[in-house]
Amino acid sequence: MPRIHLSGVAILGLCCLTGSLAAADEIVFLNGDHLSGTVKEMAAGKLVFASAMAGDVTVDLAKVKSVVTDAPVTVELTDGKRVKSRLAAGAPSGQVVIADAPPAATAPAPVLVAFTGIGRLNPPPTAWHGTVSAGATYFRGNSQTDAVTGAATAVRRSETDRITLNAGYANARQKDENADSFSTTQDAWYGEAKYDYYLTKKWYAYGDLRYEHDRIAKLDWRYTPNVGLGYQWFETPALNFSTEGGAGWVFEHYEDSNQDDLDPDHPALRLAYHVDAAINQYVSVFHNLEYLPSMDAVGDYTLRLDAGIKARLTTLLFVEFKYQMNYNSNPPSDSVTTENMYMTSLGVEF
User: Fold this and answer.
1) Which residues contact 72 (CB under 8 A, 6 or more apart)?
2) 292-to-35, 64, 287, 304 alpha-carbon distances in Å
3) Which CATH class is domain 128-349?
4) Among 7, 27, 55, 259, which residue carries the largest CB count within 10 Å?
């Protein structure tokens, strides 16, 4: 009896172990190699696969013959549709069968999809992400200089829309050796809110509102609401590139009200682009440009651009060097047309 009891336990344990081993996702490569583990995510032709033997592995789908999952995964197709389904091997290489796809009729009908037809697997849930950064300069010598800068960005991207919030501040003061007090050389801040609604996978409609104040440039305030269309050329972890075109209005007021006739409230076109690219897992670069030509006066326009490089120090901390330029073709008297800023700051991601 004891032997029978122990044998039964052993058989039961073996069955459980066999079942647990079988309950695993599997990748089959074009060269015939197999890799067992768990599918974590996929985007831009790269599949992240958790293997018990090798840990997290990033696999190029161009080298994969088939992918099989034991449990359902979230499949986002390139047309934006999502389905929760297990994946089974398709007969041709480079394709999968969405085994639990919603039936077209009353009976279940598996769907064959090429790897290129899948936009993402297990896309992250909609959440806010962004950065907060700050920099400071303190100099004492023949002259005394103090300067502080700060910036914050928050983005929430869902399947159908995107919300972007931006804000920034810069203040600087200087005192010469023989001066009695500091003089302010820069005092400006801005805030911006933007909403993008995706009409297709690439095309989106947007609405944008920006507010600016620059005391040294004698700008009490400037509001620039505008709407238009954008095109998302690339949207991947390694590369984002979009272009936009639209129209809006420029409302502004300068400190000297007699200067209002130089640049009265006016309709304006808007052309813009945004690009950021990862050089490697630690370093990335970015460049943004916004051009607002007046529709009332040819040759009157404002131009904003910033470009820089960001280096990751830890999973949360980064250091950033940025160049920012603001151009006004028709500034008030005693103000320059171009303002240039070079900033180095330390930031945190969330």
Assistant:
1) 84, 85, 86, 100
2) 53, 47, 17, 9
3) mainly beta
4) 27
Cα–Cα distances in Å, from 52 out to 17, 62, 94, 213? 15, 23, 24, 56
Q: How many other β-carbons are positioned within 10 Å of the β-carbon of residue 93?
A: 13
List pLDDT tens digits, range 115-153.
878 888 888 778 899 999 999 988 887 778 899 999 999
Whole-number Å distance between alpha carbons of 140 and 147 = 12
Q: Could you give the maximum distance between any two Cα atoms of the chain, in Å?
A: 106
Distance CA 243, CA 287 (A): 12
> How many of the other CB atoms lie within 10 Å of CB of 325?
14
The angle subtended at Cα 99 by Cα 98 and Cα 104, nearest 5°, is: 85
Domain boundaries, the chain: 16-121, 128-349
pLDDT band at 23 (very low <50, low <70, confident <90, very high): low
Pairwise pLDDT comparison (173 vs 13), residue with the higher score: 173
Exposure letters 219-240 (e unless 16+ CB within 10 A, then b): beebebebebebebeebeeeeb
* Cβ–Cβ < 8 Å for 289, 273: yes
